[in-house]
Amino acid sequence: MTFSAHGELQLFALLLAIGVLLALSPVLRVPLPILLVFGGVALGFVPGLPHVVLPPDLILVAILPPLLYSSAFFTGLRDLRTNLRPISQLALGLVAVTMTGVAAVAHQWVGLSWPVAFTLGAIVSPTDSLASTEIAGRLGAPRRVVSIMEGESLVNDGTALVLYKTAIGVAVGGTFSILHVGVHFVLNVVGGIAVGLGVGYVVRRVRRVLDDPPVEVSIAVLTGYLAYLPASALGVSGVLAAVTVGVYMGWYTPELTTVQTRLSGNAFWEILVFVVNALLFVLVGIQLRSIIDALKGSSTSYIRDAVLVSAAVIISRLVWVPIVAYGSRFFFPKIRAKDPYPPWQYPVILSWAGIRGAVSLAAALALPSDFPDRTLIIFLTFSVIVATLVLQGLTLPALIRRLNVTDDGAAAYEDAKARIKAAEAALARLEELAEEDWVNPTTAERLRGTYTFRRDRFKARLDDEDDGTIEDQSARFQRLRRELLDAERDAVSSLRNAGTINDDVMQRVYRDLDLEASRLDL
């Protein structure tokens, strides 16, 4: 495939515009997903730029598996297990409620047939995996709220896509059976989880014998596909397969990897997820031009339909979240005893964190070309995405601030406990090794002092009566250490500039200095 000079300039303009949007995000203080979508909308109407049409498989097959894998990998099994009940209520119950509510509105007011209306409901029911958690996490929302958002967005994609396939089958085939739908749903869920566990076991056995960071990171990227594609081929949920293998590998990876692999992998995933999500939101915005071009009829009626469907999506969540948050505890004392009523601010934040994204648009675009009212469904889906991004995405930060909720400190508490335990383990091992011939007494004493100070420092963080003396000592030490590391970098850079050492040597030394700096937590 070759590009003409004009095509190259178009591509350059598109990439330049994306770069400008990324640079503007911290300046304008607008949540990045919102800025990128609206930037994409603006780009779509710029004369001369390429008319981009987003292939459905680009998201559902090419992009979604590694994103699901990475999200599940870093979410962790404990958070999913701890919040299983609220996540299930949102990822299963709320998806069904949203689909039903949207279907009712679409049938009554938009004029869609029931099967087509339910298809639209399934399409717009899953929340986006990035937007809400990116906003809430950046503002320091309570850890449990963010964990529930992450878990919901991981699971509800699979739930919604299973219902979506069922609705398409009914719309095209014209037959419906509750028993058939129920059995199909259970088989999809169980089958997807089974495929994910099977692939995870095989990948775990393979990675156990490897010790090559680039190869291991590459296999990690492929793992999402290795679960998603076979599951889809078997007719079960590829989304749940990718999520399952991500959670599985997240649990076992610490025993399979070296320091170098973990450092390389974490850096790679951070950049990959950021860039891919940024590109996705821009592509979502660019789709508006082709959607509008395909529509025919009165623009006023389309706007009314978009408002009604968007309202159904938002109201369904506003009603459902408080009911299940307090109703389940009210009617079931065992649940209340184990998990007391949450502060009222938590359900309010979760109720307003229902932003939709690229998965919904990809599902709409993936409809068969002869599907009834296909163009209208795509337009309504895009409208819901924009409405939730603008109305909820722009106001969610202000809502969190207004409710005066902050990080509950659970992560900091657990971090301190882990570091105390690690320091105590090192001290215990040091005492075992102190009598060995190869251990210098001076070195042992120096390390004993280092680990004792580290243990006492983190113990002080858990002591409400601590006067801050040890933390102040640590701050002064870290400031001095940073100054010395900066001096080392300047000296190494000067040697490179003078031609005394080459760039490879400079990069190796820089990396070691950067690793030392990364241990300083101020």
CATH topology of the largest domain: Na+/H+ antiporter like fold
Q: How many independent structural domains?
A: 3
Order of helices and strands: HHHHHHHHHHHHHHHHHHHHH
Give the averaged pLDDT, no decimals: 87
Beta-strand content estimate: under 5%
Keywords for this entry:
3 domains, globular, Na+/H+ antiporter like fold, 80% helix, mainly alpha, 522 residues
Can you walk through the features of this model?
It is a single chain. The chain is mainly α and 522 residues long. The chain folds into three domains: 5-403, Up-down Bundle (Na+/H+ antiporter like fold), CATH 1.20.1530; 410-466; 469-522. 80% of the residues lie in helices and 0% in strands. The protein has 21 helices and no strands. Helix 3 runs parallel beside helix 11, helix 3 runs antiparallel to helix 16 (358-365) and helix 5 crosses helix 6.
Describe the protein's topology.
Elements: H1 5-28, H2 32-44, H3 56-75, H4 77-82, H5 84-110, H6 114-124, H7 131-138, H8 143-173, H9 178-208, H10 213-234, H11 238-252, H12 259-294, H13 299-331, H14 333-338, H15 345-351, H16 358-365, H17 374-402, H18 410-433, H19 441-461, H20 469-497, H21 503-518
In short:
With 522 residues, this protein is an all-alpha fold. It is built from 21 helices and no strands. It has three domains: 5-403, Na+/H+ antiporter like fold; 410-466; 469-522.
